[in-house]
Sequence to fold (404 residues):
Amino acid sequence: MTIYKAGVVGAGAMGAEIAQTISYAGIPVTFKDLNEAILESGLKRIRQIYERRLEKGKITPEEIEKKMSLIHPTTTYADFKDADLVIEAAFENIDVKKEIFRELDKACPKSAILASNTSSLSISELGSSTVRPEKVIGIHFFYPAHVMKLVEIIPGLDTSEETISDATAFSEALKKIPIRVNECAGFLVNRLLMPYLNEAAYLLQEGAATPQEIDQTMVGFGFPMGPFTLVDTLGVDVCHHVVNILLEDYGDRMKPAEIWEHLYTRGRYGIKKGKGFYTYGQATTVDEEVASIVRTLSQKYPRGPFSVERLLLPMVNEAALCLQEEVSRTADIELAMLAGIGFPQEKGGILHFADTLGIDLILRELEEWSRTLGSRFYPAPLLRRMVKANHLGVKTKKGFFSYS
Fold:
């Protein structure tokens, strides 16, 4: 099915950027929120994105007006009566989203696809709130949506193959890179990312290193930014929400470091609040409040080793579990790491990194850290099978990938 007209519900930062992306592709988009003030704010954000492109010489003033004219703001669901696909980009609350899906189900044509931009909630549950679960799917963009190329396509239990194909084609029409992810808590990128961010938080609360030292180490490895800068950019509150969803489904493997709760309860949500793991103003600095929290926690938790591997091996382990569970394919996992998380391209992705390091070494490290640091490091069964089969990576020419 060709998408001739799309819709977005939610005029916040993410919804506005999705609407901008759709209009930039030349597709008319109905843009809904509760009131005119929120819509005006969303439209202002969209225009600012276009104006930044104008400053770089990538678009003309006339083209901006043409693109903006494709966006139809509204406060009523009735304006979705001729939409082919609508993306919900509302607050990450399952009850709020289900109510939106019920309204869309009534307002949209029976042929329309109803999609959610949720980063972690159940697509199957959202589908169950409609009479068209086969037409409900996750289309998860990454922030900032007008820049990030990766899109996760997440079918629910009842989603049809036709809907998956149409959602994939629509994402490609937006010049995005879609990867199929079978439904699970956190989907693919968040499942891979959160163990990395969480381990950085464990290191910090142990007093093993400062936020700057950890960030500088990972930037030195090749990431575009360190884990604490990333958390402050995404939002401590957002990460707090996601890690607790993962904890509910995966248990102690995703047990959050205690420091998350300390920052969350103090309202240290990151850049948007002017303070998170860092404070923001004329310079980015460590706040004395964070330093005080670390001093208190470091007396409670024994100091473990600080290394790049301690942050990356939980990601390798989670990737192996995703392969076991058939959440995604090896190639898509690498694409997710490169395009969604910013893993250094010269290292090929987390699975290529694992093959280079050696699966046997990774297994030994995980087993040791499982004994000394906790069950979150317990190795995926796939890693044990690979070692027993001598699939050790580059050195045996067979690991997650084959090498000539």
Q: What stands out?
A: The mean pLDDT is 95.
